[in-house]
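User: Show me a protein chain along with its predicted structure.
Assistant: Here is one chain, sequence first, then structure tokens.
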Amino acid sequence: MRNLERETIKSVRTSLRNLKISEAQLHIIGSVFFTAYKELSINGPSKYKRFVIVSQGRTGSSLLSDLLDQHPLIRCQSEILNHKVYFPITFIKGMATYYHHHCWGFKVKPAQLRNRQKVDAELFLRQLADEGFTFIQLTRSNLARRTLSALVGYARGSYHKLEQGQPLEPVTIDPAQLLTAINRSIKNQEEENDCMQQVEHLRLVYEDDLFSSEVQVETAQRIFRFLELPDIDAPVQSRFLKVSSANLRDDVENFSELLQHLEQHQMFWAITQLIN
């Protein structure tokens, strides 16, 4: 069996000789597809659904995947397309077959498909739908707060927190950078919404479906049913703790300056979102 695996890896290396892929990447590709081929030939297609979580940054997707992974039949991976992947559809199908005995899924941002994979995001999601994948969209209604939260996380060098510790120090955010980031967030959200119109999906909103531990339990159960999985006895409980303060003034040293800059550019809706 090991000889066959080596031959598989050798075959992949030969066929991809002209592509810039490291030896380590080749070994991973060969191992994954060898195992996937073995699973498919022995067991046939999986009886479990495959799913994709489509979202933007700072919408709670890490929290959501952490909740889903507490179901023994679910394996939810992170953003596997955040780096260049050759033949991404084939790669995803291979990964899905590798996790034959689980309801397998992953997270993706449409911008990753456009910028990293150089593919049309709408077409890509339709192709996955044709392959039997189902979709979960996760958004936040407060776009301005989400955008500022991303900038704060970048400035601190950390987006997540798994344990209580010392209060985080406030940071300074460039007002022009915030304005640019908000406009980019608007564009990315519009792109995502256009993509999701192409496929049937379950839509979640962070403020409604993930904001508190109580609604997280209800949301997880709803997703389990959506994926046609049985409920689990113990209620889900995420490891992740809130990083941003309820009052953004505690996180951003020049918060008033940011509001003034947004007012100068008549971004009154963004000001309302940031102070509420």
